[in-house]
Amino acid sequence: MSLPGLIDDPARGDVGAVNGSAAAFTTRAGSSRARKTDADTALASLTSMTSTSADALGARVLLLAQRLGEAEEGLGGISAAITAYASDLEALKADAARKLRAAQNAYDHIFVRRAEALNAASEFVTGWALPWDAVLPSWMYLDDPGYLHRWQNAIDSYYTARDAYNALGDERRTIDQRAVSALAAVPLITAVTQGGKVGLSGFTAASLIWAGDVNAITAESLAGLGAPDIIRATWNAMDEETQAALLAASSLLLGNLNGIPIQDRVTANHKNIRDEIARREAEIARLQALVDDLKTGDRADAWEAKGYLDEIAKLRAPIEPWQRLLEQDYTWWDQSNQKHVEKKAGARVVVFDPRADAIATYQGPIDPVTGDIPAWIRNVAVSVPGTTTTITDFGDGTGSSLYRAAVRENGPSTAVFQWAGGTFPQLELPGPTDASYSRDLAPKLVDFVAGIDRPADSTLTVLGHSYGGATVGLAEQAGLKADRILYVSAAGMGKDVAGLSDFPYTADVPHYSMMARNDAVVGLIQGKEGEWHAIHGQSPLTAEGVIRLETGWMDHGDPDSTDLEDHGFPSGIESHSSVMKPGTTAFHNIVEVIIGGEAITWAPNEYVTGGYSTIVVDGIDAADYEPQYVKID
Predict the structure, then answer these.
(1) In sequence order, what are the residues at sequence separation of 6 or more whose Cβ sits closer than 8 angstroms to the Cβ of residue 413?
(2) What span, in angstroms and rounded, lies between the C-alpha atoms of 454 and 471?
(3) 206 neighbors 180 (Cβ within 8 angstroms)
């Protein structure tokens, strides 16, 4: 069973494979040591000879002995670093297992206390409406209130156990970074055996993990390396034939593995989409055959056939939109602002995992050599959508619109990811009010962003719309690293988040927010400053340190229009989604945040009192309104 709010396994990885790698490097170090001994012996013999040729040969043997000594030192250092990493990982696995059991026991105990407080009748009448982390209000409970206290204590105990388990994610990142640092301290020049020849190759510390035997690694062992930069360096050290074979054999794993270059993830995920479509079509054919075999005149048979037909409809629903992802044109601009249209090349799908309801796409150029974001890109954005997002009807329209608008505004120096890396709530209750989805999505977003290989001097903006805003906030709390954050009509900054001080890495980076006036979808559920009872935490509109931006007009290019369809912003439900509509002032401001331009700040409403009533005048409709701009840091 998956426990609510728990991050993915922080101790993932194959300790045996890591130890095997360390042993391989120990063996290579021994081989280099033996060869150095042979070279030293030969050198001693040469020094007793007197001739020009002997002197020349002696110099070469001396250099060889020196290099073999360096190789022994480097390979031994790598072995020691990997052995220490394996030891740390093994200890973390044991700790994770203990804390997972503690969390499971604490979670089970919630329902023991719940059953003590509620009899069967109460459970049937009122219990069905209570989520796992809620206690029946005291005013509805006529029995001993001690039962409610013990029930709440059990929920609190689970939170404590869950937080202890989730904290291991930080410990894993520390372990990974310690290994990277240890490898970085190893001399970069080492003797590497490749293709039966001995050569001197300059490898980065990360790629040395599998130097000399890199083409023997499995996809599972690659994933077990954990840190995206190590995964990427190891992958790039492989030859193209090995990469192609792994992509074909383990496309589902590699297409969703952070650290694999964008182009290779796209290759894998196009295969994954085709495989999933084929699987569904085969299952549809099987179910249709069962339907055809039933006698439709019999009531029981007709009912059974209806069940099969319902399942067929569910299987068929995503096939057409997924097929469009594979067949759509791909448009991008190069460094000279030249437009390229690759006909029916398909979307750049960088995440696709039907088991996890996960999908993401990339908009922008891809370096033909590295298969990743080109070095000339200066702005990278990750956009997180909101409620009703599914892998079935996912489209990369928002990412495409942001990318195209950024190119129009600032040239081709922007790239955009549209990320929906897990299950989002739907409209059925408790749906958007359930924080468990954002808790599950947040660590996945942290890992995805950490795996983006962007140019060192580029900026990274992470933005979340609606429920995606709460997801971004919890990701910040979980260790997200970014240069700018934007909350767009956000449900909040995340369950129990009080403000920017809750964020370990992004507390001091620029934060922006926006919400249309009279947003009836999330505007009423947000907590005010300092209120902890909000469904999705502190409101980014009033949080200290967050700059609120204007949503403005439906037609940003003609703010003086008197056409009600263009002027101002619609109220109610429509205003919630209109902020993401290209051409609006709101969308213009989103793009300005991404490219580091100038955005229009919020114009507070004016309140005019006359007689017995007060009239609210939108700030942008005030007679003396002049837009105020903020330079995006």
Answers:
(1) 376, 377, 378, 379, 595
(2) 22
(3) yes
Give the pLDDT score at 422.
92
Contact 270, 236 (CB under 8 A): no
For residue 562, how many C-alpha atoms fall within 13 Å in the half-sphere facing its CB?
0
Q: What is the pLDDT of residues 14-57, one digit of tens each?
A: 777 777 777 777 777 777 677 777 666 765 665 555 555 555 55
Quick one: 320 exposed, middle or buried, by C-beta within 10 A (0-12, 13-18, 19+)?
A: exposed
The answer to whether residues 72 and 29 touch, using CB atoms and an 8 Å cutoff, is yes
Helical residues (DSSP H) of 191-250, grouped into ranges: 219-224, 228-236, 240-249
**Strands in 466-612 per DSSP E:** 484-488, 511-514, 546-548, 598-600, 606-610
Pairing of strands 358-363, 348-353: antiparallel
Return the closest-CA partner of residue 556 out of 409, 415, 417: 409
How does residue 12 score in pLDDT terms, banded at 50, 70 and 90? confident
> Hunting for tokens 């070469």 — which residue is that?
60
pLDDT of residue 44: 66
Distance CA 197, CA 214 (A): 15
Of 489, 461, 468, 456, residue with least CA distance to 577: 489
Residue 500 per-residue DSSP state:
G
Q: Which helix (H) or strand (E) holds 201?
A: strand 197-202
Q: What is the pTM of this model?
A: 0.68
Rg (CA), the chain: 29
* Lowest model confidence (mean pLDDT) among 298-302, 377-381, 446-450, 613-617: 298-302
Measured in whole angstroms, how far is the alpha carbon of residue 430 from the centre of its chain? Answer: 24
Q: What is the pLDDT of residue 187?
A: 62
pLDDT score of 388: 87
Compute the distance between CA of residue 115 and CA of residue 119 in angstroms, rounded to an integer.
6
Taking the C-alpha atoms of residue 503 and residue 507, their distance in angstroms, rounded to an integer, is 5
> Is 619 strand, coil or helix?
helix
Please determine, for residue 213, whether its predicted confidence score (pLDDT) is greater than 70. Answer: no
Going along 337-494, which residue ranges are E strands? 339-342, 348-353, 358-363, 379-384, 414-421, 459-465, 484-488
Which amino acid, residue 33? R
